[in-house]
Amino acid sequence: MTGRTQIAIIGGGVAGIEVATSLGRGGKADVTLADRSLSHVWKPMLHTFAAGTARADRQKIDFFAQARRNGFRFQPGSLIGIDRSARCVRLAVEAAQGRPEIEIAYDLLVLAIGSRANDFGTPGVAEHCLTIDDLTEAERFHRQLRRHLLARLDSAGMLTIAIVGGGATGVELAAELKHAIDLLAAYGSPDLPQRLRLTLIESGPRLLPAFPERVSRAAARTLSDLAVEVRTGATVTGADASGFSLKDGTRIAAGLKVWAAGVKAPDVLATVDGLERSRTGQLVVGPDLRTTRDPAILALGDCASQLDGKTGKPVPATAQAARQQAQHLARHLGRALDRGDTATVALPPFHYVEKGAIVSLADFNGWGTLGRYTFGGGRLNGLSARLTHDLLYRQHQIGLYGPLRGTVTWLLDDLDHMISPPVRLD
Ligand SMILES: Cc1cc2nc3c(=O)[nH]c(=O)nc-3n(C[C@H](O)[C@H](O)[C@H](O)COP(=O)(O)OP(=O)(O)OC[C@H]3O[C@@H](n4cnc5c(N)ncnc54)[C@H](O)[C@@H]3O)c2cc1C
Question: Are residues 306 and 205 both part of a single domain?
Fold first, then answer.
């Protein structure tokens, strides 16, 4: 122990890596970031890796390198428990590290371990459906897609894919898959797009429930123009090897089945005694992101359930909200540490600023609403919405790399885009 404040951050996704980088650069505390993966990826890009229209290796940020450049320590490992009285977390680590688990002591613990799709216990989903909640799962989907495609490139067979969940993930994945299949037609199978049967299933009355109705209608129209069958008001009652059963008794045949509906907290949070949790398992936090029953534990991003410090409305589980919480925490905790305050000092309440909701349908279309408070509630369509969607990611990347490296990386990506094949099958 150094006598300095020990801050442990678990989960280096959209929120966690921004907090670690910012506090590490500040240099006023000993910051350790732990993640079960060795590299960070921007989760809202996972569907493009799954479809093969973007390459993950160009977009990954190596945690060890990021830690070395920004003054924090990286510890690989998966959270398996928290001892609140001893103030330490337990991580399962690879056997290669010589022991099955290690402990990290903390004065302040920041949990940012994200969320997973929620199958609500629907029979057959766990056994027969793929999810796209992390890079490993996106790559598994891509391998399966490739297997199905290769079997049909020079045969007359149908390629059947069904996605459950009409939120941004499901809608964006459907469009990205259609885009990938159109591109693949040029690889010697011109009728492949006609042999694709792609179905998007949503239990609610419309797609994109978090967006204004005009965006839902436009998205449904674009998807149906692309020959994606959109089934709204359709509740899935079960999945099996050959497809989905719906509550109204109909069947949807699908060789590839994706579950992209609902959000729930990772199961490990249920093992932590004494903390307040929401119905879907997220840790309930107060306005300053501290858990309601333990001020030494904070949670942010998708694994936290928070009411806005000003409006009292639930803060949404989006990348935009996760980034804002991370920036709020890093700024105010950084200032408190600069003043020499203890890590458990009260922080100002967090207020979420809706900067607009953007959805991007591959190269086909995009829509967005600009935030009421920031841009007067304007609308984005087509190319401008798609570019704004990309800009959210680039802001994140520039924040992590710094302006020079971030801009060079962006430029290199654009150059790479010009010379690489538009879709990969390797
Ligand atoms: C396909 C897809 C498209 C999306 N599109 C959009 C969009 O367009 N706009 C938008 O705002 N949001 C979008 N989202 C949602 C957005 O990605 C999340 O809201 C955001 O990533 C949440 O950030 P986070 O930091 O809470 O969690 P994450 O970014 O998920 O990071 C969690 C981190 O915790 C690590 N972790 C998990 N469990 C453990 C453990 N037990 N031990 C150690 N580490 C662990 C993970 O490896 C990961 O690095 C999309 C999501 C998906 C899946």
Answer: no
